Structures are given as C-alpha cells and as structure tokens.
Amino acid sequence: xxxxxxxxxxxxxxxxxxxxxxxxxxxxxxxxxxxxxxxxxxxxxxxxxxxxxxxxxxxxxxxxxxxxxxxxxxxxxxxxxxxxxxxxxxxxxxxxxxxxxxxxxxxxxxxxxxxxxxxxxxxxxxxxxxxxxxxxxxxxxxxxxxxxxxxxxxxxxxxxxxxxxxxxxxxxxxxxxxxxxxxxxxxxxxxxxxxxxxxxxxxxxxxxxxxxxxxxxxxxxxxxxxxxxxxxxxxxxxxxxxxxxxxxxxxxxxxxxxxxxxxxxxxxxxxxxxxxxxxxxxxxx
Amino acid sequence: xxxxxxxxxxxxxxxxxxxxxxxxxxxxxxxxxxxxxxxxxxxxxxxxxxxxxxxxxxxxxxxxxxxxxxxxxxxxxxxxxxxxxxxxxxxxxxxxxxxxxxxxxxxxxxxxxxxxxxxxxxxxxxxxxxxxxxxxxxxxxxxxxxxxxxxxxxxxxxxxxxxxxxxxxxxxxxxxxxxxxxxxxxxxxxxxxxxxxxxxxxxxxxxxxxxxxxxxxxxxxxxxxxxxxxxxxxxxxxxxxxxxxxxxxxxxxxxxxx
Lengths: 285, 258
Prior knowledge:
The complex is a heterodimer.
Chain A: E1 19-30, E2 33-44, E3 48-52, H1 59-66, E4 74-79, E5 82-83, H2 89-96, E6 99-102, H3 114-125, H4 130-143, H5 159-171, E7 177-181, H6 189-205, E8 209-214, H7 217-223, E9 226-231, E10 234-239, H8 241-250, H9 252-259, H10 275-281
Parallel strand pairs in A: 3-8, 3-9, 6-7, 7-8
Antiparallel strand pairs in A: 1-2, 1-4, 4-5, 9-10
Chain B: H1 12-37, H2 40-51, H3 55-79, H4 86-124, H5 127-133, H6 138-176, H7 181-191, H8 194-221, H9 227-256
C-alpha cells in the first residue's frame, strides 16, 4: 500500500456560523472497511467547494454523510449548524428541505414529465396554488434552458438535458446548500460547459452554498473557490487554488492526481508478483 | 445487512432475520397508509395500474378455467348420473379454491412483476434516494399506495374470476352438453352459502393480495441497484409469491373449512 500523507493542521477557512457544512473527525465504516477516515472539513457559506479524488475514495459516501443518508461511525456532521445525526426523522426532513442534491445520473422520476419532476418538491412540501407552482417551475426551467422541454419525459431527454432538469428540481425549493454528485460524469464537452456555467450562475444568483464532488480536476479548478482532495478516505490537500498548487509541488501524491499522471504514488500496476516469475512459472502457484 | 426473501431456508437465523425485515417493512407500509389515503388520486391511479390492467388476463383465465371444469365435471358426474350437481360443483370449486389461488398466481405474474421491476428500476436510478433527499418518504409516496391498490384489487379480481368461471361452466354444461339451465342454476344457488363459501374465498383473496403485493414491493424496493438485481427481483417476486400463495392456501383451507 502506498503511504498517503495527510494534510496537516486544522481545517482552513472560517468556522461556526460561516460554515454551511462542517465535518468534525468524521469516519465512515461500511462492511468492515473504513471508507472515510477522520475527516475535518469545512464548507464556507456562499461559495463553491470542490471535493476531488480518484474513483472509489469515498467522495459519494461523503455526500451521503452530509445528506444524512449515512451516519458516521465516528465524529460529527453539522449542516447549517445542526448535528445531522442527532435529528429525529421530522427534523431531518425539515433540514433536507433546505438542501438540494444533484445525482450522478439525475435521478429524475421516470413516470413524471420534466415539469412535474421540477414541481414535485413544491407540491410535496408547500400548499402553493397550482398557478404559482407553474410560475416557479417555469422560471427554474428557464434558468436551465429547458422551458421548452417541460412536457417531455425523462426517457426523451439526453444525458445533459436530464442533468439540467434535475438541477432545476434540486434548486426549486431555493435551498441553502446544494450537493452535486459527479455532475460532469458522462457528459459531452458542450453539456459539461453548460452544467459548469449553471452551477456557477445558480450559486451566485441564488446565494447558495455548493458542494461539488468530482474527479474532473481541470473543470473543478476553474469552477470552485475552495478545494479538498481525498485519497483513500483521507484528506491529502485542501485550500484555495494557489495553496493547492503549492501543495502539489510538495506532495507527489497531490501532483499525480492534479496532473493525471499514470504512474506515481498510486501505482499503474495492480499488485502482482514480478512479470518474469509469472511468464516463466507457467501454471505454478 | 440487506436480505432477500429467497434467502429463507439458507439458515434458520437468516430465515428469522428476513421474515423480521419483511415484517418491519409491512409495519412501515401500514404506518404510511393513512397519509397515502390522503392522496386519493394517486391511489386510484395505482388501482388502475395494478388492478385494472390485470382484468383482461383474469377474464380470459377465468373463462377457460370455467370451460375446462364444466367439461371435466360433466363427464365425471355423468358416470354417476349426477350431472344435475354440475352448477354447485363448479361454483364451489371456484369460490372456495380456484378463483383466489389462480387469480393470485396470475396477479403475481402480471402485476407483481411489474411492481417489482418498477420499484427495482426506481432503486437502480436512485429515485428513492432522490426522494429521501427531497424529504419525501418513498414508502409513503410510492410503496404504500401500490400496496393498498394491490390489496384492494385481488379480492375484486377474484370475484370477477369466479363470475366468468361460472359462466364458462354454464356454457359447457348447458349450451354444449344440454343440461337444463334451471337445474344448473338452482343447484348452484342451493349449494353455495354466502359466508362459508363466497366470503371465505374473498378472505383468502385478501390474504393472497397482501402476500403477493408485499413480496413484489419488498423485492423491488430492496433490489440491488443493477440491471442484474432488477431482473432477479422480478423473478423472485413471482417465484416467492407463488410458493407463498400455494402453501398459505393449504393452511387457510385447513382452518377455514373445518
């Protein structure tokens, strides 16, 4: 196993009221495997925070901790100042109404039209008259450029369009925090650009706090204000763009990830016995 | 850990754990039913999707079962010169046994699979997760209306099956074999008792409706979020529901018709 250096010191950035999301020494263990180890992480309010790392390092699990879907085996998770794991179901749901989440594949409801998908949270949680629901939904769809697709069903949408429709649904309740789970995966460059622009614009115009989990390094570097790099369930780097570059110079691990090098602290080869032994040894054990 | 119904039998411990999980799932559904009833539109929609679409299958199935019974019973009764008992025999076999059981089996194949695959697909495409994050309980919003719809539909479908089956028996016995229609109907009316025969059959149908719908919903809701898991959940929902119906039928017959 490669030894992975840990980022030193307490989490950077403002604490307490300024933090929309805060993880304090959070660990997550599932099926006997420790997926996240002792994470200290602060998401500053009103900004875009990117959590990056190779596949399988627990980025999505980290979002599950923040949304309260999973409970940490150790440590605490605060969202909007509330320890999410001490909340009962009613209060957890009340908190979730102030959170939006964009899922990797959009997770639109397949039996509802785009309009009804976006209207879904409003109809579930508010008693707004249908005329007002219509206005809100059309405005949100306009923001993501899909007002003309309101009557289409998810099966009729392209990957980029479903992601945009899902984004409209995620922000329709005007949440305080929006979580993005790999928002760019599987998109063509144009759709990718559209989604990146939308994340940035929505964050600014709606005054959101955004947490974006992704392994698209270059896109994240251009999008986010604040960065965390995860590897093997631990934080190995954090800070703004400049400090990330500085840490890359110091740590081969961070450099390999940021530069996308094939070999390095994360080896190219899956652990195996020497090639020579394998070739000459035949079937031998 | 997640467990599926087919793991019953792999070990006694597992069996108890799985039955417990299914029981808890049922309790969760029952707890969500009052709020599901507050959305009558969603419920009616589900009764249509789950029940009404099975109607054609039930009508055709019931008719053929009735036709076959008319034929078989008539020839058997003719040996003893007792063809006048055809009406009662057809009606009793249908009301007490065949209608609830065959309806439940057809329902498990038609509606149960579609419920399991629908929920499995929703699981695989993270729609349940999305609901949870939107602070909407998927059991309340998705599972409970489907459960209610299934439980209400099966007894109705069973009654329909009996009606068409009796018609089938009538067609063969009276129209084809030449039995007197008066004899057919009067024998039927004399031998069928409303509570012991009709209501007991409907009670069976209610239990089968609960079983088949619960199994389909449980398997679909807890399926692995993959294409393979979806297929497995669909298959399991039929296999397990069928076995549950047949074994439960024996137990209920033993208790209801002592």
